[in-house]
Design goal:
By secondary structure, the chain is of the alpha/beta class. Helices cover 27% and strands 21% of the residues. The strands form seven sheets. A six-stranded mixed β-sheet has the order 2-3-4-5-7-10. The relative contact order is 0.13.
């Protein structure tokens, strides 16, 4: 929706903010003009519960934005929510590779461009606010929604999420989620995460702080509890840390439907809007205010935060683009670029890849080869107008070849010039999940059901829609589309957490059977995070292709033939065995999050990863010159600075690589990761070219949290320039004095 005409009180306040007025002062004045009913109405969604839940179950989650906090009398537009993060979830939109795939690009500039496209398409479908910035840490690869985040490292996740936020917020307000420690799926509604001060602040919050500092408009609280408090009503998370310590300026929304347990406490804790319906707060807050249990000033503080944010973003939302921008050619081209840039070549024995396109016979084996395998079937689902499958990509890349396919019969690969085995997972194996028991528990959060239409009579003709009717929504400007729900879609497909990091047994059998009859075999692994690969050394080439989006098949063909390089690097470590990682039980009610996971745990335990964090191969040879390294430390803060190093493309074709900068304090007497990622830079060079690459750093990343403050341990910090966590090229030392 477009912002109101200049005659409205909100528009006048926005104009004054544009001229330099304080947005909180202006918001406070607007809130003072509201009636108490209007103020309370800004604390939850604008859709009545029962009509809304019926609409959502019927597909409305992907059919239209979800409004909240509109006050039409004052011209306050409120928010119109639609989800992400792989594209606009409404309409025939561009479907990008999942976030984990995009994390593998280690390319914030590319991610910012993707954010701009997603934001544009969201605006075209009437949204002004999106939950696309999903950024919980990958504590364990079995997490069902791992595909929606960027990886296991806080610095990397923070930089990629900040880039997406910058891109999105050229057109919509962005929401970072789920705050905090939400790295399990099946237990998310009940699990209590015990996490000490150090682990919380040094591991599970730094990436959120990074995006808060980027100016993200909003935060969505998580379903789970942390240290015994539900996240949606935890004043430590929502006020003490987010606002007081970080100084963040924005509004907090609950996760949908089951995000609150105590509606009064959620207000005083710092949560602005219960989403997406008039639900618990609508039932309980009017009486709480009337009886003095909840102070009206607390209500006004929450509304002020929302209105102030709307004023801060008033100039972002110009006229909405036409819906014709959805899946526009330039957007699809970007999706294709992102897909090839994300694919990780983890093995290429004998330089099998790339292959020339003039082959005679290509065999494609696997049940996923001809499937439009885009990832999770829940809130992040996107419905593109068409999808290029991996089989489509092979046929397009090898247009003159005989391309044959079978789901399970490896024998078709015998005598082929090339065999491609497609294995991995789908939304049936991993993704968003709600179990029946949890759904029954949710019923206690629902308002009383309205009477059946036959008994309701004229009562159903009031402002609240009767069950089965079109849901009540905030008035629409009439200038933006209100698309119908996508037919025959599931609101939530089966999914959940993975219980093992191995492929399905049939997939492993198929890989070995194929390579036994065709030595020129490429394995393509589809999925949302790490896969343990005991068969890896038995095949000449393996690509992690993720859930690669609507142009994934075309991009796969590009990579096979060398039209594009596989640009990805692993955003996590792949172990040789599940047991090498932190314990993983998706069924627990309580769990402890500690200082070590992923590559950090492998390093601590002296276990060599099968493929370390940052690993990945390209189609050309890069060299990092150790003699060229230069360290520049900041003055007066020696914790900041940059490392410069020369990188050369010594191969015969253009290509790209990623330079990583890890830092550690070997002299430390405090338990900590041996080293942490503090910077990275993607560099692309023509054949024979050489460039100086600068990687900035801030060693405050390695500060220790204790008793509510930060302590920088003094000493010689070792900065490792590396091509992955297992391959250090050169090290330099930065001396840092201790700082509280």
């Amino acid at each position: 929706m477009s912002y109101p005409a200049e005659s409205t009180p909100f528009a006048g306040a926005a104009a004054r903010v544009r001229d330099g007025a304080d947005h909180h002062v202006e918001a406070r004045a607007l809130v003072a003009e509201m009636t108490e009913e209007e103020q309370l109405g800004c604390l939850d969604g604008d859709t009545e519960f029962w009509s809304g839940i019926i609409d959502m179950v019927a597909g409305g989650y992907h059919g239209h934005p979800w409004p909240a906090a509109e006050v039409a009398r004052l011209g306050i537009p409120g928010i119109r929510f639609a989800d992400g993060p792989r594209g606009c979830v409404i309409g025939p939109a561009t479907c990008f590779p999942v976030s984990m795939a995009r994390g593998a690009t280690f390319d914030p500039a590319l991610e910012e461009r993707i954010g701009e496209v997603i934001g544009t398409e969201l605006r075209a479908m009437g949204a002004t606010y999106t939950g696309a910035v999903c950024m919980n840490l990958l504590r364990h690869p079995g997490w069902g929604r791992a595909q929606e985040t960027y990886g296991e490292d806080p610095h990397h996740v923070g930089e990629m999420a900040a880039a997406l936020t910058r891109g999105l917020q050229t057109r919509v307000m962005a929401c970072m989620k789920h705050f905090a420690c939400n790295s399990m799926e099946e237990a998310r509604f009940r699990v209590d995460v015990t996490v000490d001060e150090r682990a919380l602040h040094e591991v599970y919050l730094p990436h959120f702080r990074r995006v808060a500092m980027e100016g993200v408009a909003s935060v969505m609280s998580a379903y789970n509890s942390v240290n015994g408090r539900w996240c949606g009503e935890d004043p430590v998370l929502l006020t003490d840390i987010l606002r007081t310590e970080w100084g963040w300026d924005g509004f907090v929304t609950s996760d949908f439907i089951a995000g609150l347990h105590d509606p009064v406490l959620s207000v005083t804790a710092g949560l602005e809007i219960e989403m997406p319906f008039r639900q618990q707060r609508a039932q309980h807050l009017p009486d709480a205010v009337a009886t003095g249990i909840l102070a009206i000033e607390d209500v006004r503080h929450r509304v002020e935060a929302t209105v102030a944010t709307l004023l801060r973003f008033a100039d972002v939302f110009g006229p909405a683009p036409e819906p014709s921008v959805l899946a526009a050619p330039a957007h699809r081209a970007l999706a294709r670029e992102a897909a090839s840039s994300s694919m990780v070549l983890v093995r290429n024995d004998g330089a099998l890849l790339p292959v020339t396109p003039d082959l005679g016979r290509v065999a494609v084996v696997g049940r996923l080869a001809a499937v439009a395998n885009l990832g999770d079937g829940g809130s992040s689902d996107v419905y593109p107008p068409e999808v290029s499958t991996l089989l489509d990509g092979v046929r397009g890349a090898f247009a003159a070849a005989e391309v044959i396919h079978d789901d399970t019969d490896a024998s078709i690969a015998e005598g082929a010039d090339l065999a491609v085995v497609v294995v991995g997972f789908t939304k049936e194996d991993e993704g968003e999940f709600i179990d029946v028991g949890t759904s029954e528990a949710m019923m206690t959060m629902f308002p009383p059901a309205p009477p059946p239409p036959s008994a309701a009579g004229s009562a159903a003709e009031g402002s609240e829609a009767a069950v089965g009717e079109e849901p009540t929504r905030a008035p629409d400007s009439g200038t933006e589309p209100q698309p119908e729900p996508v037919p025959d879609q599931e609101t939530f497909a089966p999914g959940g957490d993975r219980r093992t990091l191995r492929l399905h047994p049939d997939d492993e059998v198929l890989i070995r059977a194929t390579v036994a009859v065709c030595p020129r075999t490429v394995v393509a692994v589809m999925g949302g995070s790490a896969v343990v690969m005991p068969w890896l050394e038995e095949v000449p080439a393996t690509l992690v292709v993720w859930y690669p989006g609507m142009e994934g098949g075309t991009a796969f063909g590009d990579v096979l033939t060398g039209a594009r390089e596989p640009g990805g690097r692993l955003p996590f470590a792949i172990p040789r065995d599940d047991a090498d990682l932190v314990p993983w039980d998706p069924d627990v009610d309580t769990v402890v999050y500690g200082l070590f996971h992923g590559q950090w745990k492998l390093d601590r335990d002296g276990v060599v990863a099968h493929r370390p964090f940052g690993a990945g191969l390209g189609y050309t040879d890069f060299a990092v010159d150790p003699d060229s390294v230069r360290l520049r430390q900041g003055v007066p803060d020696a914790r900041t600075g940059a490392v410069e190093v020369a990188v050369a493309n010594e191969g015969a074709r253009a290509g790209s690589t990623v330079v990583f900068l890890f830092a550690g304090l070997p002299s430390s007497t405090i338990a900590r990761p041996r080293r942490r990622l503090v910077g990275f830079a993607r560099v692309g060079l023509e054949a024979g070219a050489r460039a100086t690459v600068e990687v900035t750093f801030d060693l405050a990343t390695l500060a220790v949290r204790r008793h509510g403050t930060w302590f920088q341990e003094p000493g010689p910090y070792v900065l490792d320039v590396a091509t992955d966590a297992g391959t250090v090229i050169v090290s330099v030392v930065a001396e840092v004095s201790g700082q509280e």
